[in-house]
Amino acid sequence: MSPLKNDRLLRALLREPVDVTPVWMMRQAGRYLPEYRATRAKAGSFMDLCKSPELACEVTIQPLERYPLDAAILFSDILTVPDAMGLGLYFTEGEGPKFTHPVQSEAAVNALGMPDMQDDLGYVMDAVRTIRHELDGRVPLIGFSGSPWTLATYMVEGSSSKNFAKVKGMMFNSPQLMHVLLDKVSRAVTAYLNAQVDAGAQALMIFDTWGGALTPQHYQTFSLAYMEQIVRGLKREAEGRKVPVILFTKGGGLWLEQMADSGCDALGIDWTLNLADARRRVGDRVALQGNLDPCTLYASPQRIREEVAQVLESYGKGSGHVFNLGHGIHPEIDPEHAGVFVEAVHELSRPYHLG
Ligand code: 1CP
Predict the structure, then answer these.
(1) Exposure winner among 130, 304, 313, 323, fewest CB in 10 A?
(2) Sheet of 287-292, strands arranged across
(3) Distance between CA 208 and CA 275 in Å, rounded?
(4) Pocket test for ligand 1, best of 9, 27, 75 (most atoms within 8 A of CB)
(5) Is 27 a catalytic residue?
């Protein structure tokens, strides 16, 4: 495998010195890019796109051709794991993901099987290998999965949800059953992430998009505890380098200290926190990734630069910061504004890394 030409992301995640702050965007391959929409149309459906290693590779690389990004992220979805556990994932236009067999009873939880990484998820590993080959060491490749709690919300609800009635119903009424489900999903996710590392992923991110919907106590018991279980089971080194792990709980600002003790290397931070406060709270335990409000990209180029400057100033001097949006880029964003954002991070961050 070719040596990395740009390893800023890996260095910053491990709080090692860098020349400028590395930057990438959550959902950087996506509908805001006309070339993504063209490849998706060619694929037929979103799942066909995920299941074709060549096309998944193509859309993974597309944002890197436009912008000087410091990382690629595997093009796939968090819901591939429940799909591989037999739930039957499909997408309806404008309505988001759905499962034909949601998990809504004790029998359904008990019937859940462990997915086989080769037979059921081999297409993801093929995509990782194809992307690594195509990247040829340009930037590191991030692999990812959903957190067990976030995956469970989709598995129990059968779709996206506003108030999590069914999954929280299960959590309150049958906590033991919820634990059996979360433990199964955690074991599947651990194997899935390790298989991605074996295939060539150089950093890992766990997306806990819905952890912020929980009470502090339930967050600890039903989300964080299972992410800790996963982190303990991960391969942390590959190709002679550390494989950093980023943990992102959207809306998890209240719980940074606990998250920093989870064994991960970095925390993803949404835009509801000030990075100076976040840095003070986690000290030198973990790096921080974030946290520009994605809506900033609707503003003028001048305002985008000012907001980037503000986030850089809030983190302050030194390494340990990976610039990102606080959540995924919106489909309506002007691709030129995304470019202004990425270039502003490199240009304006240099003084923070001198000396
Ligand atoms: O129409 C389309 O083309 C599909 C839109 C889309 C895309 C571009 C979906 C469906 N998934 C993805 C890709 C995706 N999903 C990536 C690719 C890598 C990247 O460029 O960042 C990643 C990392 C994800 C992860 C993901 N999927 C999350 C966690 C991150 C987050 O945004 O909070 C979640 C919650 C999902 C579920 C999902 N898949 C797709 C949609 C529209 C959703 C969200 C549904 C909901 O809001 O409940």
Answers:
(1) 313
(2) 72-73, 141-146, 203-208, 245-249, 266-268, 287-292, 321-325
(3) 19
(4) 27
(5) yes
CA of 26 to the centre of ligand 1 (A): 9
pLDDT in tens, 48-92: 999 999 999 999 999 999 999 999 999 999 999 999 999 999 998
Residue 2 pLDDT > 80: no
What average pLDDT does the structure give for the chain? 97
| Torsional sign, CA 51, 53, 54, 57 | positive
- Residue whose CA is at the smallest distance from ligand 1 atom 32: 328
Residue of 77, 208, 265, 270 marked active site: 77
Atom of ligand 1 nearest to the CA of 91: 10
Span 112-129, pLDDT tens digits: 999 999 999 999 999 999
Around 155, how many Cα atoms within 13 Å sit in the side-chain half-sphere?
28
Residue 149 beta carbon below 6 angstroms from any ligand 1 atom: no
- Tell me the whole-structure pTM to 2 decimals: 0.97
Residue 77 falls in the annotated catalytic set: yes
